[in-house]
């Protein structure tokens, strides 16, 4: 059975000093020792059994220790061992690289080195979350006593500096709701308050802000900035704010596997990796944001498909970057819940929020909500939303939760690659969980239009509404704010437009051009 601080932690300690100074690789192995015991807890196995998943498979077996010993004999330093990927990250001297490739048990070697840009985060010292609480109807959860009680949430981020001093998180520490923590960037900080007190970059506040958006509340100010105020947490720091390189992806995989081994079913990761390698051969391409290319997206998909974990990921903040614009990884993984950001008034895409690539066969982002400071603070809002639904019905699995959150969103079923299905609404989500009349209510309709202009009557709308001009059912050409005059809206068809989504917030109308 899994033991805290076992083999994985040992490898982590071996490699931390040398990883930054040498070339780092993923070394993938061909097989495992079938006689090894699964490296997961009884709680993990129970969670999977309750969700109807296979309790344990080959991905739960540890990496073969004999393979690690042979790597060390070639002067390789293992850093992180991944049982899910059957691989180890390792620093390998250049003169030994070919010898490692020739080992009979090595399937392939993939370089991790090179600088690149993390998806921009725009961290702030203090969250301003009241508008989004209103937008997602937080009071509906409060009315029925849903606060994330009994739910354990994993948070993977860049740092939790001054979390203990945050008045928005005081209740978390007063209630001993941090079950454990790990620092994969500076391992010595893991088991002391230095984890919360050591600042190296401004990004070290980022996880603290994310926590506030999941669980924050202030009795002195009588404000609530997160929904899951009674949840418990595991925390992992995997990213160094000033040194961005693909070599940190193994930290992320290690944190995911650690949390899975403890039975965590809900994980927030407001980190994303996008672009910028100096060696073009190692660079991520836009076409590689496909849910399959990056190691962390593959790990996220394993978490979704085989481990029953709901992974909530920020979509990315590259929407205004003409050289990129699309979501970052692991938000591209099909099985994760990717969260974009809307503006406060009209609920359409705020400029920085990354869009979903048109080549994907599935919709990204999945949903969106208001955030002034990046999708990094939109994703944790939806994580708290999910925690409340899990409390309402613990039997829901990760895929059912995603379906409910999507169906509760204000544009459903007319989602698009700008904001997904839109803003999840607590009243609708509760109706879906409880199978009430709310679940069968209709908030959407279609109308057919001919020609280049169409007059749409919408007497109950406000003076301004949001439109999505689309070239296909899900791909947006542009979004627009238009004025309603005398209870009607004049729609003008654009070149290449096949559909127009009219967003009324409490209703959505899909205009199909013929």
Account of the 3D structure:
The protein has helices at 7-15, 42-50, 65-73, 97-101, 130-135, 138-143, 170-174, 194-197, 206-215, 249-261, 295-305, 379-392, 398-407, 426-434, 437-440, and strands at residues 24-29, 77-82, 87-91, 106-111, 117-118, 152-157, 178-183, 217-218, 223-224, 232-237, 266-269, 273-275, 310-314, 337-342, 367-370, 444-449, 453-457, 464-470, 476-483, 488-492, 499-503, 508-513. It has 514 residues and is α/β, with parallel strands linked by helices. The chain has three domains: 7-111, 2-Layer Sandwich (Alpha-Beta Plaits), CATH 3.30.70; 117-440, 3-Layer(aba) Sandwich (Rossmann fold); 444-513, Immunoglobulin-like (Sandwich), CATH 2.60.40. A hairpin with a 5-residue loop joins β18 (464-470) and β19 (476-483). α9 (206-215) runs parallel beside α12 (379-392) and α10 (249-261) packs parallel to α11 (295-305). The termini are far apart. This is Subtilisin family serine protease. It holds the Pfam family Peptidase_S8. Keywords: Hydrolase, Protease, Serine protease.
């Amino acid at each position: 059975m899994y033991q805290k601080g076992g083999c994985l932690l040992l490898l982590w300690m071996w490699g931390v000093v040398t990883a930054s100074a040498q070339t780092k690789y993923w070394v993938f192995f061909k097989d495992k020792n079938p006689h090894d015991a699964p490296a997961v807890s009884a709680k993990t196995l129970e969670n999977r059994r309750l969700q109807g998943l296979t309790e344990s498979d080959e991905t739960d077996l540890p990496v073969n220790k004999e393979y690690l010993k042979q790597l060390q004999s070639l002067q390789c330093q293992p850093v992180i061992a991944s049982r899910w990927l059957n691989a180890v990250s390792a620093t390998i001297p250049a003169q030994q690289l070919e010898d490692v490739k020739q080992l009979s048990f090595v399937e392939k070697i993939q370089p991790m080195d090179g600088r690149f840009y993390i998806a921009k985060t725009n961290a702030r010292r203090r969250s301003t979350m009241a508008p989004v609480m209103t937008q997602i109807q937080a009071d509906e959860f409060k009315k029925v006593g849903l606060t994330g009680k009994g739910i354990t949430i994993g948070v993977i981020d860049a740092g939790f500096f001054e979390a203990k001093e945050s008045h928005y998180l005081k209740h978390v520490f007063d209630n001993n709701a941090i079950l454990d923590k790990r620092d994969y960037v500076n391992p010595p900080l893991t088991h002391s308050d230095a984890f919360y007190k050591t600042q190296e970059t401004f990004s070290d506040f980022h996880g603290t802000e994310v926590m506030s958006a999941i669980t924050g509340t202030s009795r002195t100010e009588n404000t609530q900035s997160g929904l899951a105020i009674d949840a418990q947490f595991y925390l992992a720091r995997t990213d160094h704010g000033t040194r961005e390189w693909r070599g940190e992806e193994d930290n992320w995989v290690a944190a995911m596997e650690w949390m899975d081994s403890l039975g965590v079913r809900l994980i927030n990761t407001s980190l994303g990796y996008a672009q910028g390698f100096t060696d073009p051969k190692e660079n991520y391409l836009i076409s590689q944001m496909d849910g399959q290319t990056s190691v962390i997206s593959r790990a996220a998909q394993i978490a979704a498909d085989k481990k029953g974990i709901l992974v909530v990921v920020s979509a990315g903040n590259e929407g205004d970057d003409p050289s990129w614009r699309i979501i970052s990884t692991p938000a591209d993984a099909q099985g994760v819940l990717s969260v974009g950001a809307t503006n406060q008034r009209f609920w359409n895409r705020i400029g920085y929020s990354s869009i979903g690539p048109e080549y994907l066969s599935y919709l990204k982002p999945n949903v969106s909500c208001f955030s002034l400071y990046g999708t990094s603070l939109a994703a944790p809002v939806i994580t708290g939303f999910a925690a409340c639904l899990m409390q309402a019905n613990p039997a829901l699995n990760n895929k059912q939760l995603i379906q409910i959150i999507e169906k509760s969103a204000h544009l459903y079923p007319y989602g698009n690659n700008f904001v997904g299905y839109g803003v999840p609404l607590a009243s609708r989500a509760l109706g879906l969980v409880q199978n009430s009349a709310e679940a069968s209510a209709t908030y959407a309709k279609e109308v057919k239009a001919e020609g280049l202009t169409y007059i749409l009557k919408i007497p109950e709308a406000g003076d301004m509404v949001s439109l999505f001009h689309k070239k296909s059912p899900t791909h947006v050409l542009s979004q627009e704010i238009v004025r309603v005059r005398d209870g009607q809206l004049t729609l003008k068809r654009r070149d290449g437009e096949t559909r127009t989504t009219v967003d009324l917030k409490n209703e959505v109308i899909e205009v199909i051009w013929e």
